[in-house]
Amino acid sequence: MIPFDPLSYPYPSQRNAVYARNGMVAASQPLAAQAGLDILKKGGNAIDAAIATAACLTVVEPTSNGIGGDAFAIVWTKDDTMHGLNASGPAPQGISIEVVKQAGHDKMPAYGWLPVTVPGGPSAWRALSDRFGKLPLTEVLKPAIDYAEHGFPISPTLGHYWGLGYRRFAEALKGPEFAGWFDTFAPEGRAPRIGEIWKSPGHAATLRSIAETDAESFYRGALAEQIDAFSREHGGFLRKEDLAAYYPEWVDLISVNYKGYDVWEIPPNGQGLVALLALNILNGYDFSARDAVDTHHKQMEAIKLAFADGLKYITQHDKMNVSVEELLSSAYAEARRSLIGEEALLPEPGEPVRSGTVYLAAADGEGNMISYIQSNYMGFGSGIVIPGTGIGLQNRGHSFSLDPSHDNRLEPGKQTYHTIIPGFLTKDGKALGPFGVMGGFMQPQGHMQVVMNMVDFQLNPQAALDAPRWQWIEGKTIEIEPSFPEHLAQSLIRKGHQIKRASGVGGFGRGQIILRDQDSGVLIGGTEWRTDGTVAAW
Hints:
seven-stranded antiparallel beta sheet; single chain; Serum Albumin, Chain A, Domain 1; 19% strand
């Protein structure tokens, strides 16, 4: 049986885990999850369902991802093999540190053309479909096209973040290059309100073109020409040659064995390494209770040490100055663990920022499972939308350093440190299932907390997600959710942590988990109460 207690006490005001046998899709938007389930019922497998859900999310949750974003996936197939896909695009060939500095910047800007990198998302849909899918993209992308063409009602969390994004962009985005964003996402001169119907013919046309050409139009066809032309018109650096040269990469996954469970992540340039570094440090401790000051203190110290390394070393994998094997060695974990004492440490990392991302998990009755994540970064991304297409371009280049000596320095054609990370759990060579917690630099922190909730404290997937979270911000500053116990917060303050209680739950990630019982084939799913999430199952 699944080794996590199905009756583990859920935290207040949340929901129960979902059990099913034939298929399951967990996502942050009910319409997207249902779209994936519909594809399963039409004969598709878990990978088809994930693509359908992901494409749908570019329409029904554009505050967190889009057609012009990146993606990563971990796939477990029914023959008990695991596959990793890195679909994160590089910087354009025409950009450089010198070019950005000549434009008057001493660090990478967040908006406009300068932080735009090659979008990898559509290439992920194609690669996953070509290798594992049972249905053509023309069938799998139908739900997304339909919602874009005919519209859908705005859900509560989506409406909240759409309003925040509009107000931020109305203040920050002033040039003519941003008109496409306002035309697409604020057609009435404001953000759509909760319950209102929003539609985007541009999204529909683009998704239909991607489906009919297996994404060729996006990278080597008419859509690539449109992106190139708009970039040239407004002084951007992304060119059709950058798009044409791009293909996603199948990668060997990295892992650590945490107390008998193998935790899998995509290798750098993704930050999944940070979660593994932290878990490797924590492997040396036994934890008697989740809600204990010693547990939280050691978790916080481990994640700070892990980020100190991650922010220094993570960049495109073949440009790293140290190897992943060195960083994940038991000797290195022991050395880092020895730094943890009774008082809060003060490491020297960069300052994490928050982001916008969607994570989903899917499983079918045959044994296929997928952990999938995609993002435009920082909500709506760069603010650049190619007119008439719905293609909102990501701003991943914002993560590059303009310091020529930094490992993650900007270079033409280079991938940057990437925040989005899918996770996967196995035990004794068998799949338990996919998990993920979206949200910028919260993601490896969420991965660590959720894995420990299940492995150390035997919480089922829903209870593991429901539990109050914290996140390290910088220095000794830790932000805690409103529901985080006050007595623990006070004890952590006495250990030197600078504790800040957040007014809401928006910055603490939004996760999904699906696990499979190897004996019965029963699926158990959990979804995030911090958003409009749902588990669709049959």
